[in-house]
Amino acid sequence: MFDITKIRDEFPILTRTVNGKPLIYFDNGATTQKPKQVIDAITNYYTNQNSNIHRGVHTLSREITIAYEEARKTIQKHLHAKFSHEIIFTKGTTDSINLVAHCFGKINIESGDEIIITQMEHHSNIVPWQLLCEEKKAILKFIPINQEGELLLDELPKLITSKTKLVAFTHISNTLGTINPVKEIIHIIRNLSHAAILVDGAQAVPHLQPDVQDLDCDFYVFSGHKLYGPTGVGILYGKEEWLNKFPPYQSGGGIIKTVTLQKTEFADLPLKLEAGTPHIEGGIGLAEAINYVTNIGFEQIQKKEHELLQYLTKKLLGIDGVTIYGTSKNKTTVVSFNVGDIHPFDIGTLLDKYGIAVRSGHHCTQPLWEFYHVPGTIRASLSFYNTIEEIDYFLDALNKSIRLLS
Length: 406
Ligand code: PMP
Known about the structure:
The protein has helices at about 5-10, 35-50, 60-80, 95-110, 125-135, 155-160, 180-190, 210-215, 240-245, 280-295, 300-315, 345-355, 365-370, 390-405; strands at about 15-20, 20, 25, 85-90, 115-120, 140-145, 165-170, 195-200, 220-225, 235-240, 255-260, 265, 320-325, 335-340, 355, 360, 375-380. By secondary structure, it is an alpha/beta fold. The strands form 5 sheets. The protein has a 7-stranded mixed β-sheet, sandwiched between helices. The protein has a 4-stranded antiparallel β-sheet with strand order 13-14-17-16, with helices on one face. The structure holds 4'-deoxy-4'-aminopyridoxal-5'-phosphate. 4'-deoxy-4'-aminopyridoxal-5'-phosphate (PMP) binds near residues 125, 200, 203 and 364.
């Protein structure tokens, strides 16, 4: 049973007030709040376990090395990766994509090669590829979208050529909420080319459990903080055969077998790609977050979030002048909208006075807004810990804000 009172009690921040009003947190697309279980794991690390991994023979170091490697295994199991060394700890989604752009680019992109992304990507899945293409004189192509905010997959085969080396696309759009048909997209690509495939799972992992072997992607990336875990830690899943070929991303300690003054022999995976002391408590906290959501169950999470999405969408559309961007049938609890020509910042600022956190602006998807010819939106992104009562309060505050601004 999904017990909302119990669940809300597990998130300490949800009891605080903002501007004298109970916090209503509708900015989960930017980052999710943390359950006590995750906060406790981090506190416990600093209270009882703090030590550096992989380098010590003393008890604390051995204990924390085991805990960190267990966290890696939890993430491997969650993603259904074949090997735990296919799980690389990074700083987050952006860092993971940069790692792939750097390493894959170095060994596999030449002048005239092509990389395909989509028009709905977060800047983190655009800019690294632009830089790589500039450096290597490669070509960047885009899968366009339709008015509903869905990828035009009929265009994909026309974009793929013998020069296509990599296709990178988001699993769920952070701005539109669209859930892309990842398996179908990968099937199209695999049928037509040998291109490597990277899936940006930043917005997907809080809502669903990806199976990387079933999807058959080469890389799957996400951030801990969007999955109820800590900031500063993220994951790059990569197929062993790719990661083995990768040169080191960054160099230094922790990634070596032997170093002489002339030459270095590098460690095996995963350490080869994890230079320096990592975000130890981040990895441990992320595994705890995965345990937390797994315990609730993604079926329950999706059921609750679907109910919230339906309710919010229906009520919003009942307000005069509201336009929702992203109306795919297959979408998650991300609702981007504008009200007439009121500036999103004005509404966001007024909602804050009511204790409501939403995001206003371009949400790091400026090319997407070129398509819709608007500079940005208000984005309400909900989690399973939000409620219908919170939506009602939000709608009331929104209506009052609109009256004030009209
Ligand atoms: N991709 C998507 C789809 C995102 O939503 C985000 C974060 N908004 C990112 C990439 C970048 O994530 P991070 O800032 O945690 O690296």
